[in-house]
TrEMBL record:
Pfam families registered for this protein in UniProt: F-box-like
Gene: LOC100286102
Protein name in the entry: F-box domain-containing protein
GO BP term, pick one: protein polyubiquitination
Any Gene Ontology CC annotation: SCF ubiquitin ligase complex
Family matches, as InterPro entries: F-box-like_dom_sf, F-box_dom, FBXO4
Signal peptide stretch: none
Length: 235
């Protein structure tokens, strides 16, 4: 009797099944491992999770301290442990931002502190930003912080950030940025207000680079005292 397609997939030699699973990303490996016992054995292979770990946290692998792989549980256990550690560390930043909001607005002091706190997390990478900060479950403020951090600190190409925003369906989210200009090289001036309304996707092109430059220049040289009002508006 001819085997069904499901049966043929389940009866693949283990080395071929491992080769198939090795071409997938984390979520797909986990989904495939739930199809059958044979696929679960294949998807638990150490070589698969070593590759996923090295791709997601290259700085951890390249650091002076050797990666400590649990002898009995292997690379999958190490991957899960590192993922949980990242989840806790980044959630602390998200909670800080939430507690610093005032009428859905965030002052530049807290905005820049959140970005600085992300930089203090050891081995954080762009995939971590995508997992935990580009979610639609968060506000556009959190999405923007992840976007800014990826470009300014992780030096991810804006085109790659744009692709990630689109993949997570947050590129069309709009933020309203209000700049309050009060000081210029130590001299008090009458308050001037500028309001910029821009989508997250647009922040990955030239106009976004100009905005980030203004923000960072104000923080470093006290040319501006900024108050940023970031409004989560979905188009």
């Amino acid at each position: 009797m001819e085997l069904s397609p499901v049966g043929r997939w389940a009866d693949l030699p283990e080395d071929i099944a491992v080769a198939v699973a090795s071409c997938l990303q984390e979520a797909d490996v986990c989904a495939l491992g739930g199809c059958s016992r044979s696929w679960r054995r294949a998807c638990d292979a150490d070589c698969i999770w070593e590759r996923l770990f090295r791709c997601r946290w290259p700085s951890a692998v390249a650091s002076a301290s050797p990666v400590q792989v649990p002898q009995r549980r292997g690379w999958k256990a190490l991957y899960i442990s590192q993922h949980r550690r990242m989840a806790v560390a980044i959630s602390n930043v998200v909670e800080f931002v939430g507690s610093s909001l005032n009428n859905e607005s965030l002052e530049s002091e807290y905005y820049l502190k959140a970005i600085a706190d992300l930089a203090l997390i050891p081995d954080i990478g762009f995939l971590d930003v995508q997992f935990f900060l580009f979610s639609r479950n968060h506000s556009a403020i959190i999405n923007l912080i992840g976007l800014h951090y990826s470009i300014a600190s992780l030096h991810v190409l804006p085109t790659e950030v744009s692709k990630a925003l689109q993949a997570h369906r947050v590129a069309e989210r709009v933020v309203c940025v209000n700049l309050v200009i009060r000081w210029f090289y130590g001299f008090r001036l009458p308050d001037e207000y500028e309001c910029h309304r821009i989508s997250l996707g647009e922040l990955t092109v030239a106009e976004g680079a100009e905005f980030f430059a203004i923000l960072n220049r104000g923080a470093v040289h006290t040319v501006f005292l900024l108050r940023i009002s970031l409004v989560n508006v979905d188009k």
